[in-house]
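Fill in residues.
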């Protein structure tokens, strides 16, 4: 059965290896992964960096979702960002030679990594304080994990609209 015939991920039941309080985070990541794979299937490579109406390109959204998950999970683990993570942040949105398939794979790999991380979270640590960024703005483990899922879906929605606009423009020009 294809995922398009299934109910949304959150209606398919709990994931056995994820703590109960983190089920919504895991479900959100799995839903995002399914939707991104479907919407980027057969997306024209030549339009990966297009910015219709000056909105963010599809490539940016794919890079940014991957990076956000990485960065917010780093903070949730009580760690600071590395130079590599900061360099990746600075490069988000800058045209690169990555293909649609490479960007989608990197994102799917990051989601799979995030699910592994979620499976090892002790629910007793969810309310522990965590600092975000150089300013160490206040959050918690739970806040960071939930925001990573929420932010992911925000960009999935933007990606959906942008890809539909680009595909519509591309078809109209043929």
């Amino acid at each position: 059965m294809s995922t398009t015939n299934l109910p949304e991920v959150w209606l398919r039941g709990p994931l056995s290896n994820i703590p109960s309080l983190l089920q919504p985070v895991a479900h959100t990541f799995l839903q995002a992964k399914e939707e991104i794979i479907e919407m980027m299937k057969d997306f024209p490579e030549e339009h990966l960096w297009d910015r219709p109406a000056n909105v963010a390109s599809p490539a940016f959204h794919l890079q940014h979702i991957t990076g956000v998950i990485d960065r917010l999970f780093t903070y949730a683990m009580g760690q600071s960002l590395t130079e590599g993570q900061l360099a990746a942040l600075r490069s988000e949105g800058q045209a690169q030679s990555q293909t649609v398939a490479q960007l989608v794979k990197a994102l799917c790999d990051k989601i799979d990594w995030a699910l592994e991380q979620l499976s090892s979270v002790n629910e007793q640590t969810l309310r522990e304080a965590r600092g975000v960024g150089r300013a160490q703005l206040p959050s918690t483990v739970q806040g960071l994990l939930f925001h990573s899922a929420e932010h992911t879906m925000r960009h999935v929605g933007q990606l959906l609209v942008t890809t539909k606009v680009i595909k519509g423009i591309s078809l109209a020009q043929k």
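Residues 84 and 90 are 10 Å apart (CA to CA).
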